[in-house]
Design a protein that fits this description.
With 196 residues, the protein is of the alpha+beta class. It has one domain. The radius of gyration is 18 Å and the shape is globular.
Length: 196
Amino acid sequence: MPNLDFYAVDDDWPAVLDIVFGLTLFRVWEAYSRPGHDLREFRTTDEIVEAGEDYLMLLVTGAGPEPRIRRIDFAPGVSEAGFRYICEGWGLIQLHYGGFFKERELRWTHTNHNTEKRALTWAPTSPGIGDPAAWDWKAVTSASGRLNRAIRRLAVDKIGPRPVLPAAARLIDAADLRYVYGTGIHTTPSYGSTAR
């Protein structure tokens, strides 16, 4: 059960982060640093909310090596800062907050991680990330499952297979979001979309 797509907005995001820290299973980093800055590790929900961070990488404590923090240099003219860092590791769990986009689409918030099989398949293409065998895949999958089950328990509704957290449910009603397609639920239909 590595993947969970769910609807979350506003107060739902700190509630999800409280679960992450409350489980005491994870260390948490931003997936990408701000241009020109070091990559940050977060220790509290408040730190993440204050930073406005919406794309995180979770390390299951004791399940693998420290993440690889890799510098990315920008092409000339892309950014005055010139570089940023990314957080990499075969067994890291991604947590990405979708949020309300342009007041017409509530995008899925998402958790996911590699499986051992996928990591072993892709390891030759990214040797700098390390050896997938260094990870305790059973521990990664177990922690991911616990996180996903805890998030599901926050839900007050479902749209298809996707849990809807409380603030998202209120927004969906208030903004008349009815059409499910792409990576979320929208105010207007798209060809072939269906109303919920």
